[in-house]
Structure formats: structure tokens, C-alpha cells
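Recall the central idea of this unit: under ordinary conditions, the amino acid sequence of a chain determines the structure it adopts. In this exercise we apply that idea directly, starting from the sequence alone.
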Amino acid sequence: MRKALKIINIGSTAWMALVGTMYGQTTLSPDLAGMGSSSIKVAISSGIDGTTSSVPTSVPVVVQFKNPPTQADLNSITAIGGVYQKTLNSANAGHFQIPRSALSSLARLTNVKYATPDRIQHMSLEFARPAVNAQIAQQYGYDGSGVGIAVIDSGVTSVPDLANGGCGGSRVVYSETFALPGANGAYGHGTHVAGIAAGNGSCAVPSSKRLVTFRGIAPGANIVDLRVLDANGNGYDSSVIAAIDRAIQLQYTYNIRVINLSLGRAVMEGYALDPVCQAVERAWQAGIVVVVAAGNMGRYPNTSGYGTIESPGNDPFVITVGAMNDKQTAGRGDDIMTSYSSKGPSEYDFIAKPDLVAPGNAIVSTLASTSATLATSLTIVPTSYYTSASWITPQYMKLSGTSMASPMVSGAAALLLQKTPSLTPNQVKARLMKTATKNFPSASAIVDPSSGITYNVYYDLFTVGAGYLDVWAALNNGDLNHASSTTPLSPAVVRSTTGTMSLAAGTSLVWGDTLVWGDSLVWGDLVILHGTQQIAGASLVWGDTLIWGDTLVWGDTLIWGDVAQKGDN
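Accordingly, the structure predicted from this sequence is:
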């Protein structure tokens, strides 16, 4: 069981001190350092498919360097038995196969900043569009045309609704795989995500036979398909980083302004040391908005779901998105939070996440094929629901999770960038957060119909962030955070000696002009109580046996995957 830190201050210093105490150095992550222990005798899971085998003699490792690696650095790793796999530019890192017996030698190399295992990543609209006011934007001509969205996922199939406006050529303008061999889109998740962001709802079913239209948020945007997940929805850190590298390289070729990451894994160290977090920061600094799913651990019983934000959603630069339940109605008045959406703050750094929330429950979007892993009798939408034609084959499926919420925000970002191409990622994030709706109930009780368990959800900063996505409000906002150095980082949270919580000092400053970007305007008085900035629901987050206790376990069997077939009622 991984031991969590019982500290109340911000930063990774104390964590790194603990790591140094446990392993005698701070260059190897705890899970990697443990792999070098000669005491390991048990069988472990060594395959991405979950099969088990005896402990391998070498392990795949992502090595971050202090300075860009030279040939001499690569030679030094080769000298200890390492085998070079590929360079990961966005993380200033390399992917290597390292003998377990050489891990201690790796830690002593002078240019090595931090090394981690090549960890496994996993999968973390007819009502949703009006619920976020996207249909108004499209009535005024904003459809994301000309903007490229890189979907780093399980692959995107060129289904009819991802065709251009004339239903001719595909808007999937580039495809590349960084995952294991297998059919592109075999899992089905990436195609569904792409449809939420950019499906046009016009080409799968003739208009004369169409009963319902499933249109994405930015139906004119182009999709850059970067596949990193296999047919079971799993992949590796190194593949995700390599895909981010490619998105940066292709940025100007396909006008890639947005990266969507509907995937994640457990947070294993602070964001400054996490290689995937460093990669998304590099993309952000290159001018690409990065949108990440928060994760689906909101039902985790030991913490009431708090402290379960996944990486790289824990990075303060990116836009991290939680999932709302639009109740399958067009109005927003009955919408509530889902019970499974992961909550902040992040582990180790205590970053207040998510940044905002969007519809993610029972979302209908494009179906890659009826043979896709996720295509089941529970997920495929009956054709009789959306067409009067008996000859139409299934075109859509319904999934739930924060994976479905993040492309809502990616599509919204594409609309903002279509309207105002000069916007920076910082300004896009700031506008989306400031204009997000902040009218919520204080709490909701959600009953799981299969188990009868009641989940109480509180609408605090760690649950809803800055509020509920409002596309039309964001498009009509003209505020700018003027200072060129201003970066709207998601704020860190501190706990006082009296037990109250507040945003870290300086938060208003990083958001710029406090009259425009002040805390109460960005996050609202509901989630941060006016004046003292004490955060609602504090006792649920900071109890001694909760987020900072020893009982927080990050096991795959505990994750409420982004592919939940039913979601909340």
C-alpha cells in the first residue's frame, strides 16, 4: 500500500524528502525504486493486457533529464545496460529499457532529473449541446471551422459524422498510432470522444429520415487522430508523451489549437516530476490548449471521492474537466453533478481541481463500429431512436464519464479560437472558467439503482471547480488577463491551523487584474465562501482518515472507468 503524506503545506518538497529517506536518493520515483529492490520475489503484472508473469529482468523507464540529453548521456545509459527506445521531446525525456539491477546506477547519472516506470494509461449529445448553450453559438456561425483538435486516445474511425459539411471528404485529417498493433479505433472510445467534440450529426442519417440529431460542440473542426490506447483501452506514458510531441510538431500543419486527453492514471508524484504533466505543459507553452478528463473515482469510499484527480489532470496549466448529468433534458435547471466524477485537490501538490464541469453522463456520440470493444447491447443506441429508416445500421453509442465531458470543453475551446484566433491557452482557460455557470444546489443525493447506495455530492471547489460550461457566455466574454506573464494556473490550496482552507496566496495575482479576474468572479461565492475564501465541504476533505491518510489506494479495480455504460440516473 502506498503511503500518503500527512502534511498541510503545498509542494513536493516534503514528499521528495520522504522519498529520499525511503530510497536513499530522489532521482527514482518510489514505484521505480521499488522495482530495483533485490527482495522482490513475487509475480507481478508485466503485460498491458493484465496477464501476469515472473518479475522481468528489465523494466521500461521514462527518464527525464535536467538538460537536453546529449549523445554522451545516451551512451552513459547504454553503458549500464540500458536500451534506447525513443526520445520524448515534450517531457525533455527518453524512453529506455533498463535492467532492474542498474536502476541504482541510473539514479547516479548527473544529468538524470527524475525517472519513472512507463506507467499504464487508461480511459479515465442531443441534450448536452443545449445544456451548455452550444447550439446558440452554431446559430451564429461558430462551428470550429479551421481549428484542429488533436484527439490522443484509442484511435478515431472516419465515420460519416466526421465528414466535411458536404458529407464528402473526412475531417480526420491525420492519423498515427503510438500504441500496440491492432485495428485503429478497435476500442471505440476515441471515435466517441471525437464525435462529442466535432461530430456534425448530418451525414450518418439522411435528413429526411432523421428523427434526432447528435451534433458535437464544434462540428466544423478538424480531427488529428493520435492513437495511444489499445483495443482494451490501455496504453503507456511513453506513447502519450510521443503523441504530444507529434501534436506540437504538426501544430502549424493542421492548425492544432487544442489537445483532448480523455485518459489518465493515478498521480504518483508532484506534477513538476510527472513526465506526462511536463509534456502537457510543453504543449501549453507552445500555444495549444490542453483539456484533460478529471477521472472517475468520485465514488471512492475512503475519501468520498476527494483527492482522486488523475494525472495529467493534476497539472495546474491544463483545463481539467469533471462530469455533470444533464438528465437528458435540454434545460440546465435540473442538471446535477455525477457521483463518479473525480474530485480535488490533487495529491502531493494540493491543486484545486477540476477547473470546470460539463455534461458527461449518458452521452450519445459516434460509433466506430459494432465490433468495437465498447459496442455492446447496453451502449449501442437503437436506430429506431434517431431514424425512421429500417436500413440504417447502428451509428451511435452512449457512454458516461469524464472522458465524455472533456471533449465538450475541447469543442468549446475550438469555437473560442475560431472567433478569436489570437487567444492564448491562458486566455481560453480564463474565459471558460470565468463564464462558467456558478448556480448550483448545495448538495445532491444520488442513488445507484443497482446497489441502492446513496452518494452525497457537495458542490464545492473540489467538485465543480469554477462552474458549469457555458459556451455562449464564453464566446461573448471579451475580458483579457493583460499581463504577458500572467498564467491562470489552477490554484493550490492551503489549510490553516484552525482547519479552514483557502486558495494559496497570490492566486489573484496570477489571474491578473483582480477587478476582472478576482477569485469571487472566477470561482463564485458558492464554492468559495465570500471574504474568508473558506471552501465548502472542508470537513469531508481534510479529515485525518481521508485524503492524507494511509488508506488511499489507487488500484485499477477501484476505478469507475470512463466507459461506464449506464452512468447515473
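The chain is about 25% helix and 20% strand.
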